[in-house]
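Quarterly update from the structural biology core.
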Amino acid sequence: MPNYLVRLKADADNPGDLVGVFVADDVDELAEYVDECCDTCDCEYTEMPNGGIYLPRPALPVPYDIPEDGDGDFFKGASICETWFRYLVGREDFGEWHSLAESDFTPEERQELINSAIMKLSNHPDYKA
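Predicted structure, tokenized:
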């Protein structure tokens, strides 16, 4: 499964801010995960190389019963592996970024989808021209 780095787009309130690192089968699934924390229209993504996040010791056990005070920060003090560190730090542009709000359809494919949607709508029994 690909690793994705997601950040806020240049026209967002805090451009370039890290949204997160996600693992997903495809971009549609990625968008579902990102939608849990922010508006996907504000985000862009790039694929990352293999890598990971590791925790200092002592870490929280898994499974973990969250105490009544709600303190269950699994990633407190976490670090990223050297591969990801090199990927994120020290280079101005290290990946090809894609908007989560825009598809990779060609103009012809996009027009075909629009035409299909209009046809389905016009054939609906409740449609009024």
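The first helix runs from residue 27 to 35.
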